[in-house]
Fold:
Amino acid sequence: MEVKVPTLAESVADATILSWYKKIGEAVQENDKLVDIETDKVVLEVVAPQTGTLSEILKDEGETVSSEEAIAEIDTKSVQLPQSTTPKQIDTLPKTSPAVRKIAQEAHIDIRTVAHHGDRVTKADILAHQAKQQHDKKQIPEKPAPKIKPVHKSTDTSTPHVSINASGRPEERIPMTRLRKRAAERLLQAQQHSAILTTFNEIDMKPIMELRAKYKALFEKRHGVKLGFMSFFTKAATFALQKFPVINASITGEDVIYHGYYDIGIAVSSSRGLVVPILRDVDSLSFAEVEKGISDFARKAKETTLTMDDLTGGTFTITNGGVFGSMLSTPILNPPQSAILGMHNIVERPVAINGQVVIRPIMYVALSYDHRLIDGREAVQFLVTIKNIIEDPTRLLLDA
Structure:
């Protein structure tokens, strides 16, 4: 029985073998975790298709593989597992995410030796284990280390990538992940092949904050999810995209593709970097469905369980640097999309309203767009539409 790479999305050319969890000759049971495969977007877990013995590994860690390529073989006749044997008895590794296993592997830590609560080892457990190892090591008297000459030379350390540079100071060299390399390629592509401009505006967040404060408890009780600002901006952006369809379009060769649907990418942070899962058909979603979708994406990003389908496609993207404290930025396009909305932190600022200076919670927003397709007038009016909706949310109900 061959073990094959899962079917990859059309936009993903190949993948890399990240970590094998079974060795040749080991017994495996159906659905036992065999290997992690890293793509440009996600880490995929590959499990045993049948019970047997892992008879051959065709692709080692670090090797590049393609969609549906055979990477191992299982002898389904050589091992007969007892009836009473359970998957838990065979696979003694505690539950954890691919990202945590990768950290443990790079630090040469056996997951089974890490103290943890419950049935899952977390990143915090790994860090606590490392801290304990460092503390225990300090308790053992050691001979003074010989003076290291200021030359390029490896040091005696458990981390093979750490070295001492010419000035006698430590440096650590770590290969870029596929996700990071792919992100770098796409961002460079966007800058080289698009005429990117950015327009800015500011939004008085008081109306939305008051509306949210009034209904958030009822909303959470009824829908089981918190009411955040992202759903307002996602729905406002979708309304504006319907009003200005060119913002939702893209360039393919010498053609302009106008999309008759609104698939919004929501940028979220993960342990492997920034990822952009896609909310499909947002124009047909309720506020609760948008909030549940965003919440689900955040959970999946944290657990590194986002799928290829979650990250494929998209006609427009929203990124919120405000959660990290960003006051203002110029977001970069997510090709082949033609525009991206950047949200920022909310700060109380003095503003003039009806001839009076008052203090209001203000958010700066930015729209980066491809000037080859989108004119400045359309970009500015698109952003003004979002501003007007957020400052007067009843516009969403009145379609105004």
Summary: Residues 206-223 form the longest helix (18 residues).
